[in-house]
Design goal:
Helix content is about 40%, strand content about 15%. It is built from 17 helices and 15 strands. 3-[O-phosphonopyridoxyl]--amino-benzoic acid binds next to α6.
Amino acid sequence: MPVISNHMPTAELQALDAAHHMHPFTAGGELAAKGARVITRAEGVWLTDSDGNRILDGMAGLWCVNIGYGRHELADVAARQMRELPYYNTFFQTTHVPAIALADKLAELAPGDLNNVFFAGSGSEANDTNLRMVRTYWALKGKPEKSIIISRKNAYHGSSVGSGSLGGMSGMHAQGGMPIPGIAHINQPNWWAEGGDMSPEDFGLARARELEEAIDRLGEKKVAAFIAEPIQGAGGVIVPPDSYWPEIQRICDEREILLIADEVICGFGRTGNWFGSHTVGWRPHIMTIAKGLSSGYQPIGGSIVCDEVASVIAGAEFNHGYTYSGHPVAAAVALENLRILEEEKVVDHVLDVAAPYLWEKWQTLTDHPMVGEARMVGLMGSLALTPDKAARAPFAAEAGTVGYLCRERCFANNLVMRHVGDRMIIAPPLVITPDEIDILIERAWKALDEGMAAAKEQGLFQPAPRA
Ligand code: PXG
């Protein structure tokens, strides 16, 4: 057996990868034929692949490397913690310093009375916790029938059976028996694709009022909670009309249901505030966190829970938890990440420097003949691709065909910009500089040009007939 290392030729690494490694959200056969891109190192916002290409990471890994790559402070903290206490659990009335310190810090950062943290290993696990916690809360309050959770179509809340059911991804629900019962999905506030002839403001109100209608239809007595991402990420960076969130808050204020803000992407500075719910003006009872909590340097997630819910849950044994809940190495690394975010004023950098500059440049992409709209909140942005801007028309080809062509051209131009259907999305590390933003925009423009040329060549630059 050869030693597998960065020094092996790319083709050999790809062959070994194809032989034994099953990839998430990937058509394995197609990838095996083509060969996976092998990433070997990273620094700041820059990835290096096994062929020595330097790639600008416009997605911060998977929306998570908020402080950028290559921060050795986190490696040092991890090594120190591994030497001192590599593992101990937080079950059965024990604890340890990293979990204590991280929970304490999160209680300080989170708004209002969100003072209590239940740790998990990922965002999916944290949302599974939330699902069981809100139902358990109502059961302990003597209302076990309050168990339905309302979510939204095209939401992403994770990939486990529970969190995937909370999510509203039709492609996921089509595989493996999801969603589980007891979850209702209302429509998303995606004006570009679904707004028809309505004004964005009217559409935002109408989509928010679907929450009210759903609660009334299902019966307030049966609804436990509403879960939403402040800004949908994996669904394509869907920025709702301004009317949407205030109306959601009004409805929530009038109903007795719990609110779960899924901050897995929006949290820890992504939207220009510590939490996305702050940016959109929404007051949740529980926040789901992961990703930027450790900037992806260690797998860790959790739920930040308000005092009322936590105190009711504390009244009985909550039969729930993970081996790695509050893992000491992950917790210590997360704490160091939060120290860097805070001391280096990274969230201020997003709000005052990076986001305004990126938005100024990002908007210019609407001058491109294939870009219908450009949206951005903080450092998460999207472009809607269209063959007919005035009609906001989708392509005649299957959704994602043209988006995929553009993503391929991004890769070829050493830029990671993803596609979700025919929306292009970015979420770069929060430490990105104006110079790097210039490079991002230049490469994005080139990739769009090449993507459009390829679409035209393949006869794909055609609007779908109007429904
Ligand atoms: N909630 C939200 C809002 C997320 O974006 C999760 C929960 C689940 O977290 P974990 O740590 O279990 O993955 C996520 C994850 C994509 C993509 O393609 C997005 C995510 C994960 C993988 C891929 O955009 N988001």
